[in-house]
Specification:
The complex is a heterodimer. By secondary structure, chain A is mostly helical. Chain A has helices at about 1-25, 45-50, 50-60, 65-100, 105-135, 150-165. Chain A has one domain (about 30-165). Chain A contains 6 helices and no strands. Chain A starts with a helix and ends with a helix. Classes of the chains: A mainly alpha, B mainly alpha.
Chain lengths: ~170, ~240
Amino acid sequence: MIPLIILLSIASIFFVFLIWQVWSRYAPRREAALASQLTPIDLDAFENLLDREEEQFLRENLSSREFRSVQRSRIRVARMYVGALSRNAGVLVAMGQSARLHSNPEVAASGQKIFQQAIRLKVWCMVSELRLDAALAFPAILSPAGGISQQYLIVKSIAGNLPSQVAA
Amino acid sequence: MLWQYLWIGPHVLLLGVAAAMFRNSRYRNFPIFFTYLVFESLQFWVLFGLYLRKLPIQTYTNVDLLLRAGSSALHFGVLQELFESPLTNDASLRRVTAPILRWITALLVLLAAVFIASIYYHIPGQRLLQPYLSVEAFNVAQCGLLVLVFCWHRYLRVRIAHFALGVMLGLGLVAGSEPLIHVWREYVSNQNSKIVDCVQMGVFHVAVLVWLCFALASDAAGGVISSLCVPQGAEGIERIAQL
């Protein structure tokens, strides 16, 4: 009887999870407050943390122990930046998804663009977080890669144009 | 009578789901799920034909197993389709995520096989290397993948499409209840096994009804997302340009 009880418990947890997902799908969201959830990000500072030349300079001028320590600190800070970018991308995804349903076709088209680019940014943030985690473990061998900030600037510029389209 | 209805009814309704999907062109967004519906219906008619011709039980069981394997493979395809649904228009992103999903699927199947083997190890008189147990392991892995698909949407902050949610619910009902019902069958006598069969078919019937309801409902019904956020949040959106 024990196997049946174990499976029953696991199945119950799974079904509760399904019900919760359905409930949260239809629960009202405070869409209007989305923009206020965005976090300001200093992209120059972020780029600097992932700059290969900067890294090379540190590698040449510091002892290997010091380099590992400094590089780990830089990667930790870069990971915080990527985390913030990822959260902002999430907000932009939700915003784009809402804007896609707007009655104005221009806004809807921009919403679609924001949605696609923000999803792309979100996935790249996920991949970058994994890369940074690996680089944190082996700071002397692996180098954290950049390129995310460019993606962020694209989404941001499309989203930044939305208010003028809405006003038009 | 109930037994016959529960066996035939859902498979007829499956054709209704397929027809509804065809009518509102949802088959374009969910081609694998559409294929699954057609396959599941055909599977039933093949098995029903074998049943009517009163072929030996061994032949019936072998064909059933073969078709179940096909059905299970299509389940995995549907789950992949659901996982990739937020990335529909981005082939390069799908190329990035596809290997991740494949590895996770392989890992989940392995874990599910170990889990199912450990469950059946404790049931007296059970042989571990039974073909039906592999199907149960796949069902457990599919539950894990379904949880992953929900978490993936949550991570991306994508609101799951109305119909996709229906597909996930139906799949979850079937995949989540099958292993439980299979173990339950081990504990009941042959006389009571018809009750277990009825419950199993009843669960599938509910899943088909869920698919039918979600297929018939328009997206607007599920589109609780209002279009108000952009104009009313315009002041807030202006912040984006400054961030």
